[in-house]
């Protein structure tokens, strides 16, 4: 990652991206039961070194900012306090690994469960390596990193290898991967994480981070 790559939230305005960060579209692939199975990446949206991304939800040129925040009277005050994931997360336990969960940054992507079970139920059965593998696969597809796991004997959480890029999730948040620095409009530099999701509907109570509010708000790209 280039030292010049960064994302900065502007008060009442867009997210400013610097350092030629690739911007791509991301979408989930669902089963016949409507359960998310994996992610696909489609076209790159820009090759500019600097660009502005809408975070008020009103742009007619999503995901890019078109200045609509001014007419909409968007205030967009950031409230994320810069605390670390470890400070916020709760440990769920596990065998062979320890699963942690931070509900405040969950974006409800749905990879953490299916119509039969979910990570919270599976943790108790991780003495079975097949269950443990299923839990790992589910956690590694969580775009916000709300769920993480730490293997026994390791001091830090194990993270999947991810590209340095910003993914635009259809009708959802911006998925930032590769530990790109994010700074709030108040000048607070957030903990650099391998994966994090940023609000683009304007409704999150934890801006610039996404808290899943786009689901209830019915946010759509169109």
Question: Which key features would you list for this structure?
Answer:
222 residues, alpha+beta, 14% helix, 4-stranded mixed β-sheet, Ribosomal Protein L9, domain 1, single chain, 2 domains
Distance between the termini: 32 Å
CATH superfamily of the largest domain: CDGSH iron-sulfur domain, mitoNEET-type
CATH first level of the largest domain: Alpha Beta
User: Helical percent range?
Assistant: 10-25%
Order of helices and strands: EEEEEHHEEHHEEEEEH
Number of strands: 12
Category from helices, strands and their pairing: alpha+beta
Count of separate structural domains = 2
Rg (C-alpha, Å)? 17 Å
* Poorly predicted parts: none
Shape: globular
- What share of residues are in beta strands? 25-35%
Distinct helical segment count: 5
Sheet having the most strands = 5 strands, mixed
Give the second-level CATH assignment, the architecture of the largest domain. Answer: 3-Layer(aba) Sandwich
CATH topology of the largest domain: Ribosomal Protein L9, domain 1
Mean pLDDT: 95
- In which order are the strands of the major sheet placed? 4-3-9-10-12
């Amino acid at each position: 990652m280039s030292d010049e790559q960064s994302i900065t939230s502007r008060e009442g305005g867009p997210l400013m991206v610097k350092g030629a960060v690739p911007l791509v579209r991301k979408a989930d692939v669902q089963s016949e039961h409507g359960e998310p199975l994996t992610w696909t990446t489609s076209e790159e949206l820009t090759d500019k070194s600097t660009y502005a991304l809408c975070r008020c939800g009103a742009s007619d040129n999503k995901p890019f900012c078109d200045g609509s925040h001014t007419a909409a009277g968007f205030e967009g005050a950031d409230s994320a306090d810069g605390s670390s994931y470890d400070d916020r997360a709760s440990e769920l336990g596990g065998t062979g690994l320890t699963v942690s969960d931070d509900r405040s940054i969950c974006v409800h992507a749905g990879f953490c469960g299916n119509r039969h079970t979910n990570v919270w139920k599976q943790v108790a059965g991780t003495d079975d390596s097949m269950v443990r593998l299923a839990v790992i696969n589910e956690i590694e597809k969580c775009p916000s990193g709300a769920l993480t796991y730490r293997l026994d004997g390791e001091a830090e959480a194990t993270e999947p290898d991810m590209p340095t890029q910003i993914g635009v999730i259809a009708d959802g948040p911006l998925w930032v991967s590769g530990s790109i620095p994010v700074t709030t409009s108040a000048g607070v530099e957030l903990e650099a994480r391998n994966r994090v999701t940023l609000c683009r509907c304007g409704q999150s109570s934890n801006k610039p981070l996404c808290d899943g509010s786009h689901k209830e708000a019915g946010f759509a790209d169109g």
